[in-house]
Amino acid sequence: MRKISIKKFLPSIFTMGNLLCGFLAIINVIEGTKASMSHAAWWIIIAAIFDLLDGKVARLTGSASEFGIEFDSLADVVSFGIAPAVLFHTYALIDAGNLGYFLAFCFLAAGTIRLARFNISASTGKKKYFVGMPIPAGGCILASFILFSEHVWSGLAHFDISVALLVLSSIAMVSSFKYSVMPRISFAKKTATIRSIWFISLLAVVAIFPDEVFFPIGIIYLFSGPVKYISAPAFNYVFHKVSSR
């Protein structure tokens, strides 16, 4: 009898957790209360944690596979495409009629295109950066917007701001802007140690003040792509000038 390796299925267990969170987010949106909207936003953020872990587990156990990539992408469409689009439409665009449907669908379409593009070029090796903002980041930005609006600043949930956020997030996902990957925790070198301490400190702040911090961090990440694109030529010019002296 062929021996079944448990570690082969470990990444898929985390991916299933991701999918379950996306499903629960949609169920909470259907309930339609203010509290359920916040719950839905949290389920999307928890889904992102599962999504991060399934990739880590796959690499640690050496069990990355074509099936895992496809399963992960399908779960991501639900948790970071459908769930945030439905949640954001219900929360911020419900009175916009057909325009609201169109904008929410644009986000879903952009996220799905981003995933399809990622799958074509996907590899199990370590990435230096993402081309286009990852769909989990897009979904979490919309989710954290709702948490920030509900618990920190209700005035943020203005229609124009909501539309701008949705459009910018959609464009970022299908763009060619370069976005940073999550830093690897390492204390092997001085630079890596400083980066790791900074990242751990940031995680601690997020854990203590999630409603207040998640959304600002998301906005910084959203704009980091175009800022890098604009500033890179100037940086390279200065670098070459200094190097040539």
Structural class estimated from helices and strands: mainly alpha
Main sheet strand line-up: 1-2
Describe the sheet with the most strands: 2 strands, antiparallel
Count of DSSP-assigned helices: 8
Q: Residue ranges: pLDDT <50 for 5 or more in a row? A: 237-243
- What would the principal axes of the Cα set say about the shape? globular
DSSP E strands, number? 2
Question: How many discrete domains?
Answer: 1
**Which architecture does the CATH hierarchy give at level 2?**
Up-down Bundle
Description of the molecule:
This protein is mainly α. It has a single domain, classed as CDP-alcohol phosphotransferase transmembrane (TM) domain (Four Helix Bundle (Hemerythrin (Met), subunit A), Up-down Bundle). The protein is built from 8 helices and 2 strands. It has a two-stranded antiparallel ribbon. The protein is globular.
Descriptive terms for the model:
mainly alpha; 8 helices; disordered C terminus; 245 residues; two-stranded antiparallel ribbon; Four Helix Bundle (Hemerythrin (Met), subunit A); 2% strand
What is this structure, in a nutshell?
With 245 residues, the protein is mostly helical. It is 76% helix and 2% strand.
Show the helix and strand layout.
Layout: H1 10-31, H2 34-61, H3 66-92, H4 98-121, E1 129-131, H5 135-151, H6 159-174, E2 178-180, H7 190-208, H8 210-243
Helix pairs in contact: 1-2, 1-3, 2-3, 2-5, 3-4, 3-5, 4-6, 5-6, 5-8, 7-8
